[in-house]
């Protein structure tokens, strides 16, 4: 099946009230965000689309009970570990351009963006 644009772009930008994505781009699934997953997987185009849709590059992975939330990694740190230099460059610029928010400091849901 051929797409005229990237399927993620379609999901983020189109639809009616019932089908338009209106979830939290910074939400965690298995302790990581969509941006972190895309960075870990080397998906440069997905990283760019998520950032354009206002995913926050400062969000750290959520840490399990007993681990320090400060030890959580950002998408940039995951990309550096994996050696995806093109994604590192995009995320470094995005971190400079994106204001730092307030993130849950501890407990369940640690590192989640509050605002």
Written account of the structure:
Helices cover 38% and strands 0% of the residues. The protein is mostly helical and 115 residues long. The protein has a domain at 26-97: Serine Threonine Protein Phosphatase 5, Tetratricopeptide repeat (Alpha Horseshoe), CATH 1.25.40. Helix 3 (44-52) runs parallel beside helix 5. The protein starts with 6 loop residues before the first helix and ends in an 18-residue tail after the last helix.
Task: Give a quick rundown of the structure.
With 115 residues, this protein is an all-alpha fold. The protein has helices at 7-13, 34-40, 44-52, 75-82, 85-97. 29% of the residues are buried.
Blueprint (SSEs and pairs):
Layout: H1 7-13, H2 34-40, H3 44-52, H4 75-82, H5 85-97
CATH topology of the domain at 26-97: Serine Threonine Protein Phosphatase 5, Tetratricopeptide repeat
Q: What profile does the largest beta sheet have?
A: none
CATH 4th-level superfamily of the domain at 26-97:
Ankyrin repeat-containing domain
Number of strands: 0
What is the radius of gyration?
15 Å
Q: Give the termini distance in whole angstroms.
A: 39 Å
The structural class is mainly alpha
Helical fraction equals: 25-40%
| H/E series | HHHHH
CATH level 1 class label of the domain at 26-97: Mainly Alpha
Pfam family, one: Ank_2
ANK repeats: 30-62
Protein name: Ankyrin repeat domain-containing protein
Keywords: ANK repeat, Repeat
């Amino acid at each position: 099946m051929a797409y005229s644009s990237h399927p993620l772009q379609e999901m983020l930008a189109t639809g009616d009230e019932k089908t338009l994505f209106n979830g939290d781009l910074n939400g965690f699934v298995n302790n990581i965000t969509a941006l972190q997953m895309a960075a870990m997987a080397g998906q440069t185009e997905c990283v760019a689309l998520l950032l354009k849709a206002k995913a926050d590059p400062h969000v750290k992975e959520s840490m399990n009970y007993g681990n320090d939330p400060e030890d959580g990694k950002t998408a940039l740190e995951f990309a550096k570990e994996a050696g995806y230099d093109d994604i590192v460059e995009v995320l470094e610029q995005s971190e400079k351009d994106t204001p730092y928010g307030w993130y849950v400091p501890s407990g369940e849901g640690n590192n989640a963006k509050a605002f």
